[in-house]
Amino acid sequence: MDPRQKKHALSLALLACGLAASGALMAQTVGTGTAQGRTNINSKAAHQDARAAEQDARAAREAAEAAAAEKRAGSVTAEGAAQAEYSAWEADQASRRAERAAQDAKRSANYAGAANAAAHGGTALPVETAVQSGQAAGAASNAGTIARQAAMDAEAAAETARIATSAPPAPPPRTPPTETYPSEPQVTITSSAPDSVVGDYRIDMAALDANGDGRLTRAEARPNATLSAEFDAVDNNGDGVLDANELKGWIR
Fold first, then answer.
1. What secondary structure letter does DSSP report for 244?
2. Could you report the per-residue pLDDT of 198-208, keeping only the tens digit for each?
3. Nearest of 57, 80, 95, 62 to residue 161 by alpha carbon
4. What stretch of H or E contains 217?
5. Are the beta carbons of 234 and 227 closer than 8 angstroms?
């Protein structure tokens, strides 16, 4: 190849390399600015979530303390006391969850802040720090969600404890009405010696009085089976004969 052609080709190659390097540097500059912006946004979001998680943890602690106070105050019923004790335990557990979540959110916010500082300080690759800060921000957000739910659980448990301590005793079970029936009329039963038997209580005095003396002897009364059977009952004076007075109601 002609020396001039070699020189021209070398010049073109150097120009191409210069352009490529310039383009790469420009791309890196643009990427760096974007990555630094992302790390900054991620850091701010993570710190906001950490502060919110701390507020939720504080609210959960206050709810747990309120539930414990309700338990110590006592309840109207034994059932209420048992419910208040369990609710106080639930509120305490929720408060502990909120506290752990707040600590996790704070730790993640610190990671996001460190990544942001590294990106702007030039001690790390901006793109890598952007990824790290994004992961830290996501972890802070998740921790904040856990803290918020735990605070809500603690507040609900405290309210349950408050209601349980003031709940009145349950009313006694309803007794079904007793069925009533119409009262029967009172019946009085008396007893007495019988003075008659079933039979013919009407006699023909003239037909029975054989001798016509106006009295009936036992023999004269015999034709009437009823009178004969009740002879002693009708014979009030016990003289062995039945006169007109003793036969009142019998004579027809």
1. T
2. 456 778 888 88
3. 80
4. strand 216-217
5. yes
Domain boundaries, the chain: 3-166, 198-252
CB 157 within 8 A of CB 91: yes
- Cα–Cα dist 107/126, whole Å: 21
Estimate to the nearest angstrom the gap between the alpha carbon of 216 and the chain centroid: 96
Which CA distances in Å does 40 have to 34, 50, 58, 102, 119?
10, 15, 27, 21, 9
Q: Give the CATH number of domain 198-252.
A: 1.10.238.10
Which CATH fold would you assign to the domain 3-166?
Ferritin (1.20.1260)
Residues in the chain: 252
What single-letter DSSP state applies at residue 171? P
d(CA 86, CA 242): 102
User: What's the pTM value of the predicted model, to 2 decimals?
Assistant: 0.54
3-class secondary-structure state, position 242: strand
As a whole number of angstroms, the distance between CA 104 and CA 46 comes to 11
Residue range 40-85, pLDDT digits in tens = 898 889 899 999 999 999 999 999 999 899 889 888 888 888 998 9
d(CA 181, CA 101): 71
The amino acid sitting at 211 is N
Higher pLDDT, residue 249 or 102: 102
Exposed/middle/buried for 218, CB within 10 Å: 0-12, 13-18, 19+? middle
Q: Are 132 and 119 spatial neighbours (Cβ–Cβ below 8 Å)? A: no
